[in-house]
Amino acid sequence: MKALETIGGYIDQVAKTLTQVCVAIMAVIVTLQVIFRYFLGNPIFWAEELARYSLVWMTFIGAAVGLRAGLLACMDLLVTRFPAPVQKWIRVLAIALNCALFGFLLYYSIVLVGIPSVTSQKSPAMRLPMSYVYAAMPVGLILLLLQSFILLVETLTGKKGAN
Hints:
Layout: H1 2-39, H2 47-69, H3 84-114, H4 116-119, H5 130-134, H6 136-157
């Protein structure tokens, strides 16, 4: 159990750091783009693309951070009306369904990244392989799946994970 907490904390810390890097990239690039476009009259042609791809990566990685912290949207109006033991099993069922959904999406996101039309495509401005951009899905879903599994074990054992 202690090992799972350590792994979950490490995953969360890495995901937070990567999310912060993506936000910093977006903030710097968009600011520079405004300065170059409106004040210097010479826009950075690849800035919007880099900001967009940073947003994509931030979204998928940040979802794992939100899941671990219990900050993702949930509907618990009905669940809170049940006694505590029933609430626990409803949470277990919800987390197990999340794991199944993330696993399903992970499989198809890996398939998507491997499609020849994706692997051969380059981004218009930066000429970056689009498979790098699409790779945000499997990476984020792996993090979500790992965090969900850890949350499931924590909820079943009654340790910490009652989100």
